[in-house]
């Protein structure tokens, strides 16, 4: 015979299970899909009022929990029983590539892995290696349609993944010393890989065959000193962060230098450690400076237009930022490495 207290416990447990079962069956217990970037209570823009704003903060993503995926009643019930599953978090995001969707490819040097994030489907996959081999130092990343290409500076190779993280190909082991930045040039159907160890750019076909090399070690236009990042403007130009020369070079697709700008210093328009580069739809050049911990915006002739961000951990501030990418909607995605997140901004093209 059960004691009165035991009977009360059984009844309460049964009532709890019944309530949970009813909850699972009821549509109202499901969690709807949330908004990834909630409107900010106080908008953050650059330049500050009363000037016309040109850059606006959208928000930040630090892991799978920020995707706010919808959950069925059964999924909510399972979470109640076993607790929340471990979320995927960013450790030291370094480079970003954005495809329509948007889909993100993000290298994470802290985890020696690649994050593949689909904001439309609200999925987040972490890829740590291929063919039973772990990545060593994944640095650069770019999309070519639904194919994601990743440079691994430690393994001296480029890896090709699909949009789900599945392995397809690898190449460059005999041609590359330290592959870092990478860009896909659609008009030529080629990959432009920055080889920091060789101080040049190696151009590959999508099948992994080496086509040619551009540049070499030096300080003259068209030469490099530990270049790091690269981007394509959608036309006939690329921009390269010539990091140890403290400058950015604008080149044509055959490697001929068009413009060089920047010098070492601590004044506006100078560089301390230029890394990520990207073009917006008006062909302005955005440059991340990891030591200034900001993003500077230039014309292609090197005229400084605006800078945004500064050192710190709050939204709109950076800690050792690295790569960035700008999508077709002029959203600016910045790898805020030491703050373990991606920050997103809008270029307000139609303002003013």
Label this structure with key terms.
single chain; 352 residues; five-stranded antiparallel β-sheet; four-stranded antiparallel β-sheet; 27 strands
What's the arrangement of secondary structure elements?
Blueprint (H helix, E strand, L loop, with lengths): L3 H22 L19 E2 L8 E7 L11 H10 L10 E7 L3 E6 L4 E6 L4 E5 L1 E2 L2 E2 L3 E7 L2 E6 L4 E6 L4 E5 L7 E7 L4 E6 L4 E6 L4 E6 L14 E3 L4 E6 L4 E6 L4 E5 L12 E6 L5 E5 L4 E5 L5 E5 L12 E6 L4 E6 L4 E7 L5
Antiparallel strand pairs: 1-2, 2-27, 3-4, 4-5, 5-6, 7-8, 9-10, 10-11, 11-12, 13-14, 14-15, 15-16, 17-18, 18-19, 19-20, 21-22, 22-23, 23-24, 25-26, 26-27
Structural account:
The protein has 352 residues and is mainly beta. 9% of the residues lie in helices and 41% in strands. It is built from 2 helices and 27 strands. The strands form 7 sheets. The protein has a 5-stranded antiparallel β-sheet with strand order 1-2-27-26-25, with no helix packed on it. The chain has a 4-stranded antiparallel β-sheet with strand order 3-4-5-6, with no helix packed on it. A hairpin with a 4-residue loop joins strand 15 and strand 16. The longest helix has 22 residues. About 2% of the residues have low confidence.
Report a brief summary of the structure.
The chain is mainly β and 352 residues long. Helix content is 9%, strand content 41%. It has a 5-stranded antiparallel beta sheet with strand order 1-2-27-26-25, with no helix packed on it.
């Amino acid at each position: 015979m059960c004691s009165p207290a035991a009977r009360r416990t059984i009844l309460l447990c049964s009532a709890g299970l019944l309530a949970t079962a009813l909850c699972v069956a009821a549509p109202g217990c499901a969690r709807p899909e949330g908004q990834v970037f909630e409107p900010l209570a106080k908008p953050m823009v650059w330049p500050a009022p009363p000037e016309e704003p040109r850059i606006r903060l959208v928000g930040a993503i630090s892991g799978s929990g920020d995707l706010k995926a919808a959950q069925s009643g059964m999924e909510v019930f399972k979470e109640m029983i076993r607790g929340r599953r471990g979320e995927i978090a960013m450790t030291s995001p370094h480079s970003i590539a954005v495809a329509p969707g948007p889909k993100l490819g993000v290298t994470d040097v802290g985890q020696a892995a690649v994050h593949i994030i689909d904001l439309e489907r609200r999925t987040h996959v972490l890829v740590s290696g291929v063919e039973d081999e772990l990545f060593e130092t994944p640095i650069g990343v770019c999309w070519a349609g639904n194919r994601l290409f990743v440079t691994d500076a430690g393994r001296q190779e480029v890896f090709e993944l699909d949009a789900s993280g599945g392995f397809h190909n690898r190449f460059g082991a005999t041609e590359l010393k330290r592959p870092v930045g990478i860009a896909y040039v659609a008009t030529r159907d080629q990959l432009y890989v920055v080889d920091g160890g060789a101080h040049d750019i190696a151009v590959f076909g999508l099948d992994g065959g080496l086509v040619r090399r551009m540049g070499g070690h030096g300080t003259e236009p068209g030469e490099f000193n530990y270049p790091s990042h690269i981007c394509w403007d959608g036309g006939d130009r690329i921009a390269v962060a010539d990091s140890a020369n403290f400058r950015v070079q604008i080149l044509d697709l055959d490697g001929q230098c068009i413009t060089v700008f920047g010098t070492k210093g601590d004044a506006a328009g100078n560089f301390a450690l230029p890394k990520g580069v990207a073009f917006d739809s008006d062909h302005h050049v955005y440059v991340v400076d990891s030591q200034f911990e900001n993003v500077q915006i230039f014309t292609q002739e090197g005229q400084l237009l605006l800078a945004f961000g500064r050192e710190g951990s709050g939204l709109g501030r950076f800690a050792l930022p690295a790569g960035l990418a700008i999508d077709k909607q002029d959203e600016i995605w910045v790898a805020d490495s030491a703050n373990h997140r991606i920050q997103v901004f809008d270029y307000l093209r139609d303002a003013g």
